[in-house]
Amino acid sequence: MATASLPQDPDLDQLRKQARELQRAVREGDPAALTRVSRWHPGPPLADGFPLTAAQLVLARQHGFTSWARMRRYVQVVTARAWTPGQPPPDDEPLADRFLRLACLTYSHDERADRAAASRLLEEHPELPGHNLFTAAACAEAAAVRRHLAAQPAGASVTGGPHGWSPLLYQAYARHNPDVGLPATLETARLLLDAGADPNDGRFWHALPTPFTVLTGVLGYGEQSQPWHPHAIPFARLLLDRGADPNDGQTLYNRMFGSKDDHLVLLFEYGPRPLAPAAWRIARVAR
């Protein structure tokens, strides 16, 4: 059993540094380091010949991995799809990025005032859905989505905006308009899915192991009582019909802070089933 999980935003360079520090401490005969080695190395080498690979193995096993290679692969996967919200925006932040940053849940200091500011920004700049596919998706402006896709047929798979998300993720996490219509919501999502959007798209929040997926965003809630999408259940049903994984750990965690169980009824209806590998399943296997 691991004694310590990897921290938020794990860094391979820092882990390599820790392994070198452990190697040095063992060679110097440090009692605490020797205890670590005796506990976590299957056949502890002699202190005077303790190689770096042995220190790396000890570190990996402490964090719950069977080998340094598996831990390295895990960190590479989660950092490649990591999402680190809360970073200050650039001074020259584009208008469209500012709108998306304010409109979408980030699970890091989500504020109603931000969503209200996004709504005002849209009132002041009704042309925002025309800026790009990300803003059109967040606003569930199906006509604008259709125009953007006509100009860029592969756009549903492109990432960008302030969070580096796909258009479907921006739609799933947008909360600036509680009155968005159901037909517009579903038509927008269908257009994106038909154009190749991944219903299992997601990001590792601060490179932690459970991903925030499209489904997570739609079904909402969390420790700060973040609102679910105004049409959460029909939107989620569409995603599940298109192959979204009903075994969504972050959704189950987020929704346990509320009293409604409609999400459980829906997820149990679809139940466990085999799906194509996604980045987080690869990361899980890497352990």
Strand content: under 5%
Radius of gyration: 22 Å
Any idea what the CATH architecture of the largest domain is?
Alpha Horseshoe
Briefly, what CATH class of the largest domain?
Mainly Alpha
What's a quick, concise take on this entry?
The chain has helices at 12-27, 31-40, 52-62, 68-80, 95-103, 112-124, 133-138, 142-151, 167-173, 182-194, 214-219, 232-241, 249-255, 262-270, 279-285; strands spanning 82-83, 202-205, 212-213.
Could you characterize what this model shows?
It is built from 15 helices and 3 strands. The protein is mostly helical and 287 residues long. The protein folds into 2 domains: 12-80, no CATH class; 95-285, Alpha Horseshoe (Serine Threonine Protein Phosphatase 5, Tetratricopeptide repeat), CATH 1.25.40. It has a 3-stranded mixed beta sheet. Strand 2 and strand 3 (212-213) form a beta hairpin. The radius of gyration is 22 Å and the shape is elongated.
Features:
Serine Threonine Protein Phosphatase 5, Tetratricopeptide repeat, 287 residues, 3-stranded mixed sheet, 2 domains, mainly alpha
List the helices and strands and how they pair.
Blueprint: H1 12-27, H2 31-40, H3 52-62, H4 68-80, E1 82-83, H5 95-103, H6 112-124, H7 133-138, H8 142-151, H9 167-173, H10 182-194, E2 202-205, E3 212-213, H11 214-219, H12 232-241, H13 249-255, H14 262-270, H15 279-285
Parallel strand pairs: 1-2
Antiparallel strand pairs: 2-3
Helix pairs in contact: 1-2, 1-3, 4-15, 5-6, 8-10, 10-12, 12-14
